[in-house]
Write a structure and sequence with these properties.
mainly beta, 15-stranded mixed beta sheet, disordered N terminus
């Protein structure tokens, strides 16, 4: 399936304060959908989750998407994250793994990814400004780890499906099969997600991606695209 040419990404949440959230939805963004929780400075030291790599459906033009976990990026310009990418470019689907710490550009993880693969990701503060980023492909039996320095405020944690901004422009959201997030954890515990923590993606006044209500345990949900 290969790796697409993605250029310079910008993954911070672009909240749309002018749009009125739907009932049972906490926030609206032009590039994020999923769940985000917020807290005081230093509140979040660990985040993790499992998800399935979605299938990319054909689109008329180029379209992009990513599924990831992260700390920060919600109402601030800092972010540490890791996830999978799923794009449609020049009539082909591309799937790949990556990690990123803003403001540096994304780093591709050169290991195989296919739709349907089961991923398990974690980001852990070790000591001082040292953080461990870990991404495991359970289906293909590989694990990637990297120790990096990060000094963000640690005021939010996220589980997100996104249409990234590429080279300063908001990308068209790829047409995806549902992305199932499970075993979401923050600081080693269930985040007890509520509907108020959820957000939908709104592009050109059209809802393009929306999360389900959280499961009963408050640690899982499904993100579905709304295809026109």
């Amino acid at each position: 399936m290969g790796i697409s040419t993605i250029g310079q990404w910008n993954h911070t949440c672009q909240l749309d304060s002018s749009a009125k959230p739907r009932r049972n939805i906490g926030w609206i963004s032009s590039n994020w959908s999923g769940y985000a929780i917020t807290g005081k400075k230093g509140a979040f030291k660990r985040v993790s989750a499992k998800w399935n790599v979605p299938f990319v459906r054909p689109s008329r033009g180029a379209s992009y998407s990513s599924a990831w976990i992260g700390i920060d990026g919600f109402s601030n310009s800092h972010l540490i994250q890791t996830g999978t990418g799923h794009d449609w470019i020049d009539g082909k689907a591309y799937y790949y793994a990556w990690w990123e710490i803003l403001p540096a550009s994304v780093t591709i993880i050169p290991l195989p990814i296919q739709p349907g693969d089961r991923m398990h990701a974690s980001i852990i503060k070790c000591s001082g400004s040292n953080w461990l980023i870990c991404l495991r492909n359970v289906s293909r039996n590989w694990t990637f780890r990297t120790l990096q320095r990060y000094g963000g405020p640690q005021t939010s944690a996220e589980w997100i499906v996104e249409a990234p901004q590429i080279n300063g422009a908001l990308a068209t959201m790829a047409r995806l099969s549902p992305v199932v997030f499970s075993c979401c954890r923050v600081n080693g515990k269930r985040p007890k997600l509520t509907v108020d923590d959820g957000g939908i993606m709104l592009q050109n006044s059209t809802v393009t991606s929306i999360p389900s209500n959280p499961n009963r345990a408050g640690d899982g949900f499904v993100v579905k695209g709304v295809h026109q």
